[in-house]
UniProtKB/TrEMBL annotation:
Coiled-coil spans in chain: none
Domain of life: Eukaryota
Domain annotation FACT complex subunit SSRP1/POB3 N-terminal PH: ranges: 23-103
Keywords: Signal
InterPro entries: PH-like_dom_sf, RTT106/SSRP1_HistChap/FACT, SSRP1/POB3_N, SSRP1_DD, SSRP1_sf
Domain SSRP1 dimerization: 111-174
Name the UniProt record assigns to this protein: FACT complex subunit ssrp1
Record gene name: SSRP1
Signal peptide: 1-22
Species in which this protein is naturally found: Goodea atripinnis
One Pfam entry name: POB3_N
Length: 218
């Protein structure tokens, strides 16, 4: 779900940093006025005004290191592929030009599938021992279905990639503290409040009423 794999540094001057992807995916530029990323493949442009930046995290990811940027409007942007030696240069640029500290954030690499789901604005993060294992931008969710102690998230297909994540399922244990609220329904409502759900429109071909159905079969 990250936008680009990047490697720094093509050009560095007092007011700008330019970044180019080794796979030629795009170009990322830090300037005093904004942060701009343009995809070479699709031409799509991300433009983040410098005055809206309020979060900058440096994180170890699968493609080296990555930067997570957050804005006062609630938007999250992530760019991957930086080298370890780039941290000081980018950190100093952010401190001088954006007045934002580029903090280091540890990620969970234990591979555990049992943790805590946390909702923060447009993001769902899955944390293991207070370290984030992965994050899901809720705007990428196309459907959210519930079952017994389970929530299934389906995602919009990404036409820019050859392989896309289509579905994730979360097991939600029964609540032992608040019997008045169904934890599965609460989880689903948190997802749906920020999800970009596909709505079906039009007239039904047929409607079955009071139909008995057994799932799974047998």
């Amino acid at each position: 779900m990250n936008r680009v794999a990047v490697v720094i540094l093509v050009l560095s001057i007092s007011t700008q940093l330019f970044v180019v992807s080794p796979q030629n995916d795009g170009r990322l530029r830090f300037s005093k006025q904004n942060v701009v990323y343009k995809s070479n493949k699709t031409g799509k442009v991300d433009s983040i005004p410098a005055g809206e930046l309020n979060l900058a995290q440096w994180r170890r990811v699968c493609l080296g290191h990555g930067i997570k940027l957050g804005t006062s409007t609630g938007h999250i942007y992530k760019y991957d592929g930086f080298r370890d030696t780039d941290f000081e240069k980018i950190s100093e640029f952010f401190k001088v030009n954006y007045k934002v500290e580029l903090s280091e954030k540890d990620m969970s690499v234990k591979g555990w599938n049992w943790g805590t789901a946390k909702f923060s604005g447009p993001l769902l993060s899955f944390d293991v021992n207070d370290n984030t294992a992965f994050e899901i931008p809720l705007s990428n969710v196309s459907q959210c279905a519930t079952g017994k102690n389970e929530v299934t998230l389906e995602f919009h297909q990404n036409d820019d990639t050859e392989v896309s994540l289509m579905e994730v399922r979360f097991y939600v244990p029964p609540s032992q503290t608040d019997e008045r609220q169904d934890p599965v329904e609460a989880f689903a409502q948190n997802v749906l409040s920020k999800a970009d759900v596909i709505q079906a429109t039009g007239d039904a071909v047929c409607i079955f009423k009071e139909l008995q159905c057994l799932t799974p079969r047998g």
